[in-house]
Known about the structure:
The complex is a heterodimer.
Chain A: H1 4-11, H2 17-54, H3 60-87, H4 95-113, H5 117-141, H6 147-173
Helix pairs in contact in A: 2-3, 2-6, 3-4, 3-5, 4-5, 5-6
Chain B: H1 2-30, H2 37-67, H3 78-91, H4 103-126, H5 132-158
Helix pairs in contact in B: 1-2, 1-5, 2-3, 2-4, 3-4, 4-5
Amino acid sequence: MTQAAPRMAASGAHESSGASQTGLSQQSALPQAAAVLAYAGALPLIIAAMLVWLRPVDFGPGAVNFMIVYGGVLIAFFGGVRWGIAVMRPGGPTFAGLLGGAFPLALSMPIFFLEDIRARFAIIIIALPILLWDDLRATRRGSGAPQWYLGVRTPLTILMAASFVIAFAQILANG
Amino acid sequence: MARNRQREEMTRLGLYGLAPFVISAGALWLSPFILPQHIALDFHQIALVYGAVIVAYLSGAGAGVTLAPPQTLRESFLPGQLITLVAFVAVIPNGVFVMQLGAAWRHLIIFVLLVYLLLRDLNATSAGLFPKWYGALRMRLTFWAGLAIVLITSRLLIWGFY
C-alpha cells in the first residue's frame, strides 16, 4: 500500500545484482519484523487467557469479554488479508476468491452478538484453524500468501487457538 | 469483459456491505416514531460492531495486498495492526483500563479510521497499485458509510448518549 510498491515491482526484473542483494537482505529482515509484530499481537490474548484461568472470579469476566472482541476483530483481519491477496492475484480476483475473503467477515459478526459465551468461543476456536487451512491451501495452489507468512501464521494460530481453548475449558469448568 | 465483470461483482459486494450502516441509521431516525428506542439502540450496536469489523477487514486487506505475489512486503504490518487495535478499543465493552468511551465517541473513532483507510487506498490507487475504478468505488462506499455514521452519531447525541 505504499507508493513505492508498483515502482519496485516493475523494476524487479531489471535490478542490478547489487540492488538485488539489497532487496534480498531487506526481505529477509522484514519477515522477522512481521513475526515479532504478529507475536506481539497475540500477547494480549495469552495474558487474557491466563487471567481467565488463574483469576476466574475477579478478572475472568472482563478478560472473557476482551478475548471475544479480540477474536472477532482478529478473524475479520485475517479475512481481509485473504481478500487483499485475492484481489492482487495476476489476472484479477475470482468471485470464489472474493467470497472466500468475505466469509470470515460474515463469520465474525455472530461472535459479537450471540448471547451464549460458549457459542462465541466455539466459533472462534473452529474458525481460526479453518482460516489457516484455507490460507495453506491457497499458498499450495500458488494463489495465496508467501511461505514465510504462513511460517509465522501457523504457530501464531496454534498459540491463539490454544489461548481460546484454555479460557474455554475454564468457562466450561465453571459452568 | 472479465474486468467489467470483476468491477460489477466488487461493486455489488461493496453495496451489500453498506446495508448494516444504512439500515441502522434509518432505524435510529425512525425511532421513536416507528421503532421503540431500545430496538433502535440495538441497531446502533450493530452499526458500531460492523464498523469495527470493516475497519479490521480493510486493515487486513492492506496487509494482504503487500503479501500478494508479485508484490513483496514493503510496508510493515504495524499500521494495519495499530488500526485494528484502535477499532478494537472502539468496541470493547466498558472501555479500556480507566477510559470509558461514550457511544458517540466510539462511532467517531470508526469514522476517522474509515477515512484514514480511504486515503490510504486512494494513495495506492494513484500509485497504480489498484485500478482507478477501485479508488472511485472506495470513495463512494466510504462516503455513504460515513454519512450513515454521522446520522447515527447525531441521533445518539440528540438522545444524550455521548
